[in-house]
Amino acid sequence: MGSDGGDQPRLRQLNERVVLAAVRAAGEARVAEIVEQSGLGRTAVEEVLASLVERRWLVEESPAIRGRGRPARSYRFRAEAGYVVGLDIGAYSVRGVLTDLDGRMLASIRRSVTPEAPRARRLEAADEVIAACAADARLAASKVWAVGAGTTGLVDPAGTVVHANAIPDWAGTNLVSHFPHRLVVADNDSQLAALAEQRRGTDATEDMVFLHAGRRTGLALVLDGKLRRGAFGAAADMSALRGVAWEAALQHLHAVVPDDVPTVDKAERAFAAAREGDRAARTAVRKYAHAMAVAAATAIAIVDPKLLVLGGAFSQASDVLLEPLQTELEKLCPRVPEVRASTLGALCVALGAASLALDALDDRLLSPTRGPLPPLAVRSI
Amino acid sequence: MGSDGGDQPRLRQLNERVVLAAVRAAGEARVAEIVEQSGLGRTAVEEVLASLVERRWLVEESPAIRGRGRPARSYRFRAEAGYVVGLDIGAYSVRGVLTDLDGRMLASIRRSVTPEAPRARRLEAADEVIAACAADARLAASKVWAVGAGTTGLVDPAGTVVHANAIPDWAGTNLVSHFPHRLVVADNDSQLAALAEQRRGTDATEDMVFLHAGRRTGLALVLDGKLRRGAFGAAADMSALRGVAWEAALQHLHAVVPDDVPTVDKAERAFAAAREGDRAARTAVRKYAHAMAVAAATAIAIVDPKLLVLGGAFSQASDVLLEPLQTELEKLCPRVPEVRASTLGALCVALGAASLALDALDDRLLSPTRGPLPPLAVRSI
């Protein structure tokens, strides 16, 4: 109510965010387009643009000369100003992806670990993955502004792993405090995989049950366009439900593969055998699909989603897994949603962790209550 | 995008809705308050106000004279301009509530029916309830602008009962086409009960699993402030889940009551006996609570809500039911949300049906794409 001395800078900060958002949404935009998109006056837009170029958030592009007259200036968001790494910290591996501020993936790194590795070793592997991502993309380590970390088990809002059945020395680890980066966020792996599917998956993924199928298994919900985390961050945490036996499900696949195949490769070998028509392998896949369907059917009955997405590493075996999954769901559900395989495969958790980090950065950068945008010459996010 | 001849009326319609919404939200508002609330100029607001008064959407109130000077004019939404009836069509009864456009309840009527009654008789009872509601509130039948109907079973978006186990001659009934009113909407009873709880319940009901406990039993979800209907209108439809035995649960209560007590009264008698310390009745209530908890625990595991609300007619027995329900949930759930009893009791479904009708009216009245607001002298919604 009324106006005070603080209103002018606040308005300026709001305008900066509006202009920045308009340019980002367009990829590259001319002044007239930004004026139209932002609803601001031309003078205000030009002032803000000059200031954002000076502070290196935007870059003025030299347009190709088309037709007569002076070509209109256009502006591009400097998505290469900073980068984030999304981590997937599992029992057998730590994966990382590096993306720019627009989410374009520039590097993907995987390091093997063992379920029995002590906490410090797993965290060290995560540090190595971040460094290797930056090196792979030929970037200085300081260019990684933010880290998102996904891991198995329940992660509380402060970033502490509350429990993680798949990794003995893991509960109690605080992921946010471990990494030295200015902005670190963490969440459960299946929830992050669903987030990645919503952001990067094929169309119509605004309302889905996401079945995370791989060496780790889980469910997550995207409802009305929003990842459902739950009051305790435990939405779709099936460890609470009797009659859901993820571990036993995996054993069906492992049992049809020779003992000397490493555990980490067994499931893929079973899928490969099923693909070649091996009868025992096909039966094993059907039993596995049944166990997945029992869990998915519970979530389907509760939220009645438009879509069920088969995601995780095993989505790469959708040629042999999708049909049995659909068949088992039809036995269990009066109403089966559309069933579709993700195309993100084993990278889904790391990509979701990167999306989480980018969301947190956007929140910090684009909220007008956070003060003026810092200049990008220094690392000051 | 440029302007054409259609812009001016559209802007006017938008302004009408903005002003109407501002007055409704305030209850009664002075011009200065409406200007502040709406963000419109004073001249525009005064023009719109005059027009809305002329068409009888608003009434100008004669203010009490406080202090010196000419008292500021104030405006009130004519919530008494029209009314809605919310129906709850069950196996044993049809209930109705009549509310004004602000949702104030002015009448509540109940008619008994039997589960075996033919479809036509049940619909006739519904017609009688609407008429009796209007008569009870001393209103002409034409003052009832809209009807909302809730019923047991699954109701499709067109208002047809898809299935209803509790009433033999009910599946296939189209509720929307039966009633002669201009605006008729219908939905599942448990979902409407949850809607009523969200709108009229005590605080913090923006995120909950609603356990509808009465002669009919069901679950419904309000997530992030929004009733979750689901892709097929079947969210939280537990008929799809094995291991959930609503009917058997009720039998625990019925079994401890003498055979000559009418079925419709048996549960309340069992709760009364438990209240008086009858050991068999208390055991029966605990068994009933266990069955409810099994179903609720499934929904809790999937959506991880802040709150579980015990609603429906049996919420009136919360003094003997809430503690066993909480105890059983603690056995089944790693994370138990806050558990609370509804205060809406047996009226919850009818009140939710009224809310649904009011929402549909608001949508028709307040959407600027629907054309200018009609004058209220004639019934022309």
How are the secondary structure elements laid out?
Two copies of one chain form a homodimer.
Chain A: H1 7-26, E1 28-30, H2 31-38, H3 42-54, E2 58-61, E3 74-77, E4 83-89, E5 93-100, E6 105-112, H4 119-136, E7 144-151, E8 154-155, E9 161-163, H5 175-178, E10 183-188, H6 189-200, E11 208-213, E12 217-223, E13 226-228, H7 246-254, H8 263-275, H9 279-303, E14 307-311, H10 318-332, E15 338-341, H11 348-366
Parallel strand pairs in A: 4-7, 7-10, 11-14, 14-15
Antiparallel strand pairs in A: 1-3, 2-3, 4-5, 5-6, 8-9, 11-12, 12-13
The arrangement of helices and strands of chain A along the chain is HEHHEEEEEHEEEHEHEEEHHHEHEH
What would you report as the Rg of chain A, rounded to the nearest angstrom?
23 Å
Please report the total strand number of chain A as a whole number: 15
Largest sheet of chain A: 5 strands, mixed
Report helical residue fraction of chain A: 40-55%
Q: Output the structural class of chain A.
A: alpha/beta
The oligomerization state is homodimer
* Parts with pLDDT < 50 across at least 5 consecutive residues of chain A: 1-6, 377-381
The CATH superfamily of the largest domain in chain A bears the name ATPase, nucleotide binding domain
CATH class of the largest domain in chain A: Alpha Beta
Overall mean pLDDT of chain A: 89
Residue fraction in strands of chain A? 15-25%
Protein name (chains A, B): Putative NBD/HSP70 family sugar kinase
Keywords (chains A, B): Kinase, Transferase
Domain HTH iclR-type (chains A, B): 19-60
Family (chains A, B): Belongs to the ROK (NagC/XylR) family.
